[in-house]
Amino acid sequence: MLALAVTSQTIFRAAAGTNWWQPLTSAVRHFVQDHQKSGLFLVIFLEELGVPLPEPGDVAIAYGGYLTTIGKIPYPLAYVAVVGGALLGSTAT
To answer: Is residue 80 part of a domain?
Structure first.
């Protein structure tokens, strides 16, 4: 039991020491920021298909909500992008 605890602590420390997920998370954020509506659609679509993403789709939805609040994306288009990506992604599998 002690060996298992030591091994899991070692694994968590090793995973925390590597920063391989930060560039991936940043890439998804920049993709949504650059492509806005189509970026939201694609991130949610891929998440619903089961493609592992570096951050949950909920983060992209929250970021899309922020972009609608500051006026970068019209609310109806953001809504259609998120709901459309979720519906098409979940029915494509």
So the answer is: yes
